[in-house]
Every structure is written in structure tokens, then in C-alpha cells.
Automatic annotation (TrEMBL):
Beta-1,3-galactosyltransferase that transfers galactose from UDP-galactose to substrates with a terminal glycosyl residue. Its cofactor is Mn(2+). Pathway: Protein modification; protein glycosylation. Belongs to the glycosyltransferase 31 family. The chain crosses the membrane at residues 45-67. Keywords: Glycoprotein, Glycosyltransferase, Golgi apparatus, Manganese, Membrane, Signal-anchor, Transferase, Transmembrane, Transmembrane helix. It comes from the Eukaryota. It is a single-pass type II membrane protein. Its EC number is 2.4.1.-. It comes from Canna indica. GO terms for cellular component: Golgi membrane. This is Hexosyltransferase.
């Protein structure tokens, strides 16, 4: 007779033992993280906080030390005669002379008020031309230049940019130290086209002088500053005035010709009315507009006089045509004398200027013609 199967109790006992084994907590092993109530953990946190506090303290002390040093540092002396890299060498010379004598320039304003600024365009290679002008109508030293400034209200300066050529700059510096009659403009003379130099001059001159007119002139003309001052001082109803010896003519589209205009297709067959390049004047309101305009927003033609004439078309200016600014010989009314075609480098400018200066009607005649003087009486 088969025996009954009694293995169930045994099985239950085995199950209880198995459950007990499973319920046993796992053995303690080393943990990468210490319990929060561990003394070692508290020490680590304290050390980290102390390190952070020390770093913050060092940064704070360094900031206080830097601020103290900055406040104790003497103020940097900035020459008020500069705009970017623009500079009036006459005023720089006066400032240094007064400082050396322990005096202050009481009349030294950031933008002195004058009737007009006359910028005579020149180059590093044109020392002979400048000498020819200084030997005739252009003042030859700083005292004479200052006297002319006060007598006529005109600030006459030779206008030039900068160069990276140290020899050229050194040679020019000797000339500056002797005459103090330059205006450095914010431009690179080595890579400069005349329209860009013209715009740089007007921007620099406007920031250096508070003038009623700004005059661009070439270094091969014979000028009567007193007569130019009389012209600029006239009462005018229009505040936007463009003064010059006006002209118009066919557009040169032949690249082999001297006055070639690469953008002639934008102009047409004939140029618009504009002033000859050797000398012209712009009123302060016009120059203010040009100063605030973005350079790359203004179209540049090949020729500087055409470029300025095109800008004048975009503005409501008064074109004032004055043939006294372009006479070929001296007369009782001539303001500027220059040859057309102009005297270029091969000609003897020194002899030409000397001959004109020795003519009484060029250099010694009255500022106003006789009939105008009698009318004023």
C-alpha cells in the first residue's frame, strides 16, 4: 500500500528559511558617499565653505586695491586739439610753449571761433611748393600766422595726412618744428585718393574749428587772404552756401585722358555745375552735414571737384559763382590767381609765386576796389 506523501511540511520549513535569508540586511560595505551625520562629511563641507570665503575675500580685496590705485593715478592729459588723429600743430605748439613757461592757455578752446579755415592741400614730396608759398603770401612763422589769424579771422594751415614711412615723417617734423603751420587730418596719405582726403579735411577742420566757412585750396595758387576774408564775411540770406569759380563741361570717359571719370555713365554727357578744384568754400551748415554723414554713404567720383559738386546737388545749397577765385593774372579784384591748365610739378612754382608777389597789384593793392571804397565813404 503506498505511503502517503508528507513532504509539504518540509517544504514549508524550507520556504521560511529562504524568506529569512532574503530578509537579512545586506552586509555593510564601504560607500563612496558618507552619511549626512558623519563627522568627516561635516568637516569637508566646512573646509569647502572656508575655501570659497577665502576666494571671495581675495577677489574683494583685489577690487578695492585696483579702485584705489585708479583713483590715485593722475588724470591722463588729452590734447583738446585732436579729433581722432587730427591735429592743429600751431595750437599744439602754443600749448606746449605756455606749459613750459608755467602758464595756462586761457583762450585755448576746443573749437576756437574763426571766420574761416583755409586748408592748403599738400603732400610729403611738396616741400618746395610750401617754401614758395611761405616766401610770398603764406605766413612763414608761427607769430606771423597768429597775426594773420587775428587780422583776417582766417586760420591758414597746410593739410596733410599721416604716413608709415618714418623718414618722411621725420623730415616733415623738422618743418613743423620750424613753422607750426600744418593740420594733420585723420587719413593715410600713402593710400589716399583726393576725394577721400577732401572729406577727411572737412571732417577734421569742423572738429578742430568753429568756423563760418571751410575753404579747400591747392598749393599752387596765389591767394589774397584779406580779400578772401572780405568775401566770406558778406551777409548771406542762405545758410547753405557753396562758393567757387563754377564750371561745367563734357564728361571725360576716355581712360587715357587726365580727367577720366570711371563712373561717367552715372553723370551723362555733361558735368553738372560745380566749382573748380583749386579753391572753393563751404558754409558751416554744409560741412556739419558732411561731418555727420557716414563716409561709405557718399558716392566718390574720380575727381574731387566733381565729387563735392555731386554732393551739393543733393542739398539745397546756394551756388555762388565768383570768378575772382580763378583769375589767371592779378587784378584789383582777384582773390586767387592760378593758371589753367594748372601749374604742375615740372613748372617752376617758386619763380611763378615770386613774380606774382613782386607785382604791386598782386600783393600791395587795396583789399577793396577803388569804386567800392568810395561807395562806403
Amino acid at each position: 500500500m503506498p505511503q502517503p506523501y508528507h513532504s509539504a511540511a518540509y517544504d514549508y520549513d524550507d520556504d521560511d528559511d529562504l524568506l529569512k535569508k532574503r530578509r537579512k540586511p545586506p552586509p555593510k560595505t564601504a560607500s563612496a558617499f558618507l552619511p549626512s551625520n558623519s563627522p568627516l562629511s561635516s568637516n569637508c563641507i566646512l573646509i569647502v565653505l572656508l575655501l570659497l570665503s577665502a576666494v571671495c575675500l581675495i577677489v574683494g580685496i583685489s577690487g578695492i586695491a585696483f579702485a584705489t590705485a585708479a583713483l590715485r593715478r593722475p588724470p591722463r592729459i588729452v590734447t583738446v586739439f585732436r579729433c581722432g588723429r587730427a591735429e592743429d600743430t600751431l595750437r599744439t605748439f602754443r600749448s606746449k610753449s605756455l606749459a613750459a613757461a608755467g602758464r595756462e592757455d586761457e583762450g585755448g578752446a576746443a573749437r576756437p571761433k574763426v571766420l574761416g579755415v583755409v586748408g592748403v592741400f599738400t603732400q610729403f614730396s611738396a616741400a618746395d611748393r610750401r617754401a614758395a608759398l611761405r616766401g610770398t603770401w603764406f605766413p612763414s612763422d608761427s607769430d606771423a600766422l597768429s597775426r594773420l589769424d587775428h587780422a583776417t579771422g582766417l586760420a591758414l594751415r597746410f593739410v596733410i595726412g599721416r604716413t608709415k614711412d618714418s623718414k618722411k615723417m621725420a623730415a616733415l617734423q623738422k618743418e613743423i618744428d620750424m613753422h607750426h603751420d600744418f593740420m594733420f587730418i585723420d587719413a593715410d596719405e600713402d593710400n589716399l585718393k583726393l576725394p577721400h582726403k577732401m572729406l577727411a579735411f572737412f571732417k577734421s577742420a569742423f572738429n578742430l574749428f568753429d568756423a563760418e566757412f571751410y575753404v579747400k585750396a591747392d598749393d599752387d595758387i596765389y591767394l589774397r587772404p584779406d580779400r578772401l576774408a572780405t568775401l566770406l564775411a558778406k551777409d548771406r540770406a542762405h545758410h547753405l552756401t557753396y562758393i567757387g569759380c563754377m564750371k561745367k563741361g563734357p564728361v571725360i570717359t576716355d581712360p587715357n585722358m587726365k580727367w577720366y571719370e570711371s563712373s561717367g555713365n552715372l553723370i551723362g554727357n555733361e558735368y553738372f555745375w560745380h566749382a573748380h578744384g583749386p579753391i572753393y568754400a563751404l558754409s558751416a551748415d554744409i560741412v556739419s552735414f558732411l561731418t555727420n554723414a557716414r563716409t561709405n554713404s557718399l558716392r566718390m567720383f574720380n575727381n574731387e571737384d566733381v565729387t563735392i559738386g555731386s554732393w551739393m546737388l543733393a542739398m539745397n545749397v546756394s551756388h555762388e559763382d565768383n570768378k575772382a577765385l580763378c583769375e589767371p593774372i592779378c587784378s584789383s579784384t582777384s582773390i586767387a590767381v592760378w593758371s589753367n591748365p594748372r601749374c604742375l610739378d615740372p613748372c617752376d612754382l617758386k619763380n611763378k609765386m615770386t613774380e606774382l608777389h613782386n607785382i604791386s597789384i598782386c600783393s600791395n593793392s587795396s583789399t577793396l576796389p577803388p569804386e567800392e571804397e568810395e561807395d562806403e565813404r
